[in-house]
Amino acid sequence: MNVHNPATAERLLSVDEALAAILARIPVLPAEPVLLDDALGRVLAEDVHADMAVPPFDNSAMDGYALIAADTEGATRERPAVLRVVADLPAGQVPDTPVRRGEAIRIMTGAPMPPGADAIVRVEDTERGEGTVRVRIAARPGRDVRFAGEDVRAGDLILPRGSYVRPAEVGMLAMLGRRHVQVVRRPRVAVLTTGDELVDVDEPVTPGKIRNVNLYSIMAQVRWCGGEPISLGVARDTVAELEAKVREGMTADLLVTSAGVSVGDYDVVKVVLDKLGHIDFWRVNMKPARPLAFGHLGSVPMFGLPGNPAASMVAFEEFVRPAILKMQGRQALRHATLQAVSDAALDNRGGRRSFVRGYLYRDGDGYRVRPAGPEGAGIMTAMVRANCFIVIPEDVARVAPGDTIGVELLDAPAAEAPAAAPLAASASGAEDCCD
Ligand code: AMP
Ligand code: MG
Predict the structure, then answer these.
(1) Whose CA is nearest to atom 11 of ligand 1?
(2) pLDDT per residue over 333-345, tens digit each?
């Protein structure tokens, strides 16, 4: 069967063109209110202003004594200033006694400055006597005082719409009294794997069958970048079954299918996608993961990833992850990059952009990188060992040991060189044929 029609003719696109075309057609999802406890990892869909100043009042930054700086003029360890202690002030209490000349109030960190006092001397610089305190340093006015509004001023815009909520933002929202906050909705991402050869993880692997890897890796990738995966399981390679599953996926915010999009594929996936929506079958000038389908089923964006597990993961990281991040309102959509020195020689014939699964590690002040294992599009061991993709540009045919090369971070760099990892990406003969 050949359903290759001109409307969906394969085009050779660069990685950047493909990503730009995708992102131009991906919407940011609407807002929803969430509890503060659920705001982590979300993007604010409202401007958050300060409802009051923080700190709300001048207060002590230290456990010590609130006093009048002028009373400590010239004080030293040998010639301390002796002041009369007139009260004790714990945090959470309001001072009911002022400080007058010659007096001090014992004060705890966070307690409001008593009227009259203009400085704090920490307890380590004092010595307690009977109803008195000996102050062994000369304090300047304002010493160890935290002033009202020094962190946040009432009415200021503190967290603008679009802010990514990390633990610090959660703390700030609490500081600003927000029990609820508007955030961008997380996309619900339906994941459908296809192929008559697939069995589930706990089923017997009978002759000709393989375990379904992609259903689980794709769902994990969805969750890892903030989406909510919905498993559609496996559709066998029949139009009826595929169509039913794809229709189910059309109730989600995004549908990701696995396999059946390469050139030589038995084309039921293509038939069904063509029937239900507008899908382009692209050839992206990259390695691995050259075949990629992208389009819409009704209003639902849809990706078709290659079936080989490592290629599927690479295509996800480069195209689906940015889309899922954009849907959540995130600003930085691509993986962070840094430059590293290559330990190995890397070949990149064919003028494609290569994403070599790499092992990145610290070396003194810089970073070094080496291939994490064999390069085949189906090889998962290298993916498991990898913490980055080494990105070899289209116009670089060979990277020599010692060359500096860009990497995309999947994870934090390792602290040290691996005990035993292959130095060369073993270019298996099958590699070039595998997407
Ligand atoms: P395809 O994209 O359909 O040509 O598949 C390419 C290769 O990926 C074939 O060897 C498939 O058996 C394999 N494959 C497809 N889907 C999966 C999956 N869900 N898990 C593991 N391997 C898969
Ligand atoms: Mg197949």
Answers:
(1) 307
(2) 999 999 999 999 9
Token digits of residue 432: 């070039």
Digit-coded pLDDT (tens) for 257-293: 999 887 666 678 888 998 999 999 899 999 999 999 9
Would you report the helix, strand and coil content of the chain in percent, each value rounded to 5?
20, 30, 45
Q: Tell me if 259 CB under 6 Å of ligand 1.
A: yes
What's the 244 CA to ligand 2 centre distance in angstroms? Answer: 18
For 425, the token pair is 């990406």
**Is the CB–ligand 1 distance for residue 291 below 6 Å?**
no
Instruction: In whole angstroms, give the CA distance from residue 59 to residue 119.
Output: 10
CA distance 87 to 158: 37
CA-CA-CA-CA torsion sign (91, 93, 94, 98): negative
CB 220 within 8 A of CB 324: no
Does the Cβ of 199 fall within 6 Å of ligand 1?
no
| Pocket of ligand 1 contains residue 308 by CB under 6 Å | yes
Distance, in Å, from the CA atom of 338 to the CA atom of 387, rounded to the nearest integer, reads 13
DSSP state, 318?
I
Of the candidates 228, 201, 227, the residue with the CA atom closest to the CA atom of residue 214? 201
Q: Could you give the maximum distance between any two Cα atoms of the chain, in Å?
A: 100
Verify whether ligand 1 is closer than 6 Å to residue 306 (CB atom).
yes
Please work out, in degrees rounded to the nearest 5, the angle formed at the alpha carbon of residue 72 by the alpha carbons of 71 and 75: 145
Kindly give the number of the ligand 1 atom that is closest to the alpha carbon of 215. Answer: 19
171's CB contacts (< 8 A; 6+ apart) are: none
pLDDT tens digits, one per residue of 78-122: 999 999 999 999 999 999 999 999 999 999 999 999 999 999 999
Q: Whose CA is nearest to atom 15 of ligand 1?
A: 307
Q: Which amino acid is at 412?
A: A
CA angle 263, 264, 265 (to 5 degrees): 95
∠ CA 294-6-323, rounded to 5°: 10
CA-only gyration radius of the chain, Å? 31
Q: Kindly report, residue by residue over 146-191, the tens digit of the pLDDT.
A: 999 999 999 999 999 999 999 999 999 999 999 999 999 999 999 9
- The C-alpha atoms of residue 418 and residue 16 are separated, in whole angstroms, by 32
> Cα–Cα distance between 283 and 100 in angstroms, integer?
81
Q: On the CB side of 258, how many CA atoms lie within 13 Å of its CA?
A: 32
Query: What letter represents residue 327's amino acid?
Result: M
CA proximity to 257, closest of 212, 200, 214, 317: 214
Helix (H, G, I), strand (E, B) or coil at 71: helix
Q: Round to whole Å and give the CA distance between 411 and 414.
A: 9
